[in-house]
Amino acid sequence: MRLTDFWQRMDQALGAGYAESWANDFVIESLGGRTVRQALAAGLDPKVIWRAVHRELGLPPSAR
Prior knowledge:
Helix content is about 60%, strand content about 5%. With about 60 residues, the protein is mainly alpha-helical.
């Protein structure tokens, strides 16, 4: 998954204004206790991060 696709999905799920804040502040245990921003900076695959976000938010299967 490209980063642009990842951020588009984040914006769709959380809203353009809130997605950035959430990515900076919300810690996801399945990402090693990292935020989305920290996971991206650590080099994790955006697809893996999106799957973790998807689970955390309880999004419908159609949002995968």
